[in-house]
Amino acid sequence: MKDASVNERTIKPIRFRHGLLALTFLAVAMAFCVVGLGTEPQMPLVIGCLLAGGLAMYLGFKWDDVLESMMKGIMDSMEAVLILMCIGMLVASWIQSGTVPTLIYYGLAVISPQLFLPVAFLGTLLVGIVLGSWGAAGTIGIAFIGIAAALDIPLGMAAGAIIAGAYVSEIASPLTDGPVLCAAVAGVGVFDMCKRFLPIVIGVCMLSIALYFGIGHLADATEASAAASTAGLMGELSSAYSIGPLTLVPLIVMIICIAVQVPAIPAFLLGAALGLIEAVFLQGADFGVALESCSAGVTSTTGSAIIDELFSTGGIAEMLPTITIVILVMAFVGLMQHTGLMDSLIEPIASKLQGYASLLAGTVASGALFNIVMPDQYPAIAMSCKMYGDAFEKHGTPGEVWSNICNSASGITSVLVPWNTCSIYMVTILGVPCLKYLPFAFFCYLYPIAVIVLGILFSRQLGWKCMPRGTESVQRSDADNVAETTQA
């Protein structure tokens, strides 16, 4: 719906073709620039905003209206921007404090090549429940990538298991941004939403673990070659850093903070501050250098090629490309929302999905499509909920059910799209191209499939009502009439 501040008498009728055209502008720009020319997503996003803004002005909006719409969208992304900056500082401080090196060291001591993939999936899953998908990948995910390199595990497989484990939190954790956003848009409790689909999440996780276990036993690396390669890296880590349980204090403290529902930004900042303290007092780092690294990133100079490549990362500067993408994405979404272009696109599509099976399948499929076109997880979640919420309500589907259905694809398929902000972040943090880890991120595409299949076959048994609203009340009224007649 258009902003109330706009004089509607000057606005031309906004049709479905206008919303579709604006979205097509962005999709074509992304395809041509990112896929065809190999550029970063920023410039096609700028082009998409310009073309959509031009369309809005053609429809009668003034430039001030277009600018205000984009600014509103950008303001909605400010918390995500601050969280990204905090993650950059956290990664840099935890490398310098020895937290990440210690995690790698201990992991090398206990993980075998055959068990690496299921352990990496489970380990990242557990951390992701409290730190979120990006926080888990930026902390324990980096550690697992280092372990994979030492064990001669293909990095595509390793990154796939890490990312799949991290993104379980985008469905099952009430502490992460995706479920919180989805619950807020749907107007339901985030804990109720996450609990409702927990059996399906557990089932898909068990299937993923079985697949990783099978792949791990087909790995080429042997125990002898793994032991030889890990022994050298463990020696280099212990000589470059002070390894020990004390270096894990920042991680433990931050997990406790999140578990007792301390907001994400203060928890990340506390973890980064503790990392800086340990970098100075445990690792002997210069405070000025350590502090600057939280901004500019760590430059590792241990002399070990693998360690220096792995640990030369982090800092706010490392997050800046992702931050600019988030800002531009939300500018486009704000423009679509506040000019009515999004509603013109949503309403005709939702009205055509009358059957429950088509509605469920269409919701999940379009969530993945939004991640391809938008390209960001948050607008994909918001658009899915806004597009299909009313249709599910008409079927009598509980809010905690349809909100999770909307989130089942839009929340986790984003990381499978090379030009999506989520994928770009993972590639930046883990150093593995999207197309290499995509085939092994099992949970991210098995879960949406499971939701569609189970929802169509067993919706009533699962408590997913698919009876049009009002039918039950009519049936009850008929029963009451019969009862009254019998009594008479």
From TrEMBL:
Listed transmembrane segments: 20-37, 43-61, 73-95, 115-135, 142-165, 171-191, 198-219, 239-260, 267-290, 310-335, 356-374, 437-459
Record localization: Cell membrane
InterPro entries documented for this protein: Na/H_Antiport_NhaC-like_C (IPR018461), NhaC_Na-H+_Antiporter (IPR052180)
GO cellular component: plasma membrane
Lipid bilayer topology: Multi-pass membrane protein
Pfam families: Na_H_antiporter
Alphabetical keyword list: Antiport, Cell membrane, Membrane, Transmembrane, Transmembrane helix, Transport
GO MF entry, a single one: antiporter activity
Main location: membrane
Na+/H+ antiporter NhaC-like C-terminal domain residues: 206-456
Family to which this protein belongs: Belongs to the NhaC Na(+)/H(+) (TC 2.A.35) antiporter family.
Protein name per the record: Na+/H+ antiporter NhaC
Organismal lineage: Bacteria, Bacillati, Actinomycetota, Coriobacteriia, Eggerthellales
